[in-house]
Amino acid sequence: MSTGPLLTLVQGDITLQSADAIVNAANSSLLGGGGVDGAIHRRGGPAILEECRALRASRYGRGLPTGRAVATTAGRLDAQWVIHTVGPVHSGTEDRSDLLASCYRESLRVADELGARTVAFPAISTGVYRWPMDDAARVAVTTVRATGTAVAEIRFVLFDERAYEVFAALLGG
């Protein structure tokens, strides 16, 4: 009997992962930026930006809304697709955790539509959007555990040792 997807952790660079889909912590413009977003666009090459521009010219003229997800080619990455999702900026006065959870749910929904079996996630919103790592990890892990999906492996790819340790503590490893 299946108990859901295997949740795994890797410390390292998400752009070096081999997976069916790599999740990009994008900005709403879909046109690249800093952090994970910039790294994915740089390593993946111009094919990703070309598809993002086409999305902006069609369905997402005002940009991709926070908490939503959309897929493009993965270009030169070792993946078939990049799933772009826009995380919320952390607020000390407003609870935006539902938007952060939506990033994970929507990314898995898109992965299921694509038929992706392995998905690599960064720690969404923990960079320039300043989401505290402990809370971001809690939202990420509880959301993917509660989301029905056909994805076989959900891999959290954490850039540094502290992020890895926070996620590992939640996963009991």
Which descriptors would you attach to this protein?
19% strand, 5 helices, alpha/beta, 173 residues, Leucine Aminopeptidase, subunit E, domain 1
Report what the structure shows.
The chain is of the alpha/beta class. The protein has one domain (6-171): Leucine Aminopeptidase, subunit E, domain 1 (3-Layer(aba) Sandwich). The protein is built from five helices and six strands. It has helices spanning 35-44, 46-57, 97-114, 133-146, 161-171, and strands spanning 6-11, 21-26, 69-73, 81-86, 118-121, 153-158. A six-stranded mixed beta sheet has the order 1-6-5-2-4-3, sandwiched between helices. Helix 3 (97-114) crosses helix 4 (133-146) and helix 4 (133-146) packs across helix 5 (161-171). The longest helix has 18 residues, at 97-114. The chain is globular, with a radius of gyration of 15 Å. The two termini are 23 Å apart. The model has no long low-confidence stretch (mean pLDDT 96).
Secondary-structure map:
Blueprint: E1 6-11, E2 21-26, H1 35-44, H2 46-57, E3 69-73, E4 81-86, H3 97-114, E5 118-121, H4 133-146, E6 153-158, H5 161-171
Parallel strand pairs: 1-6, 2-4, 2-5, 5-6
Antiparallel strand pairs: 3-4
Helix pairs in contact: 3-4, 4-5
**What's the mean pLDDT score?**
96
Low-confidence stretches: none
- Rg is 15 Å
**What is the tally of helical segments?**
5
Count of β-strands: 6
Q: Structural class, from secondary structure content?
A: alpha/beta
Q: What portion of the residues fall into strands of 2 or more residues?
A: 15-25%
Percent range for helical residues? 25-40%
Q: Could you name the CATH topology?
A: Leucine Aminopeptidase, subunit E, domain 1
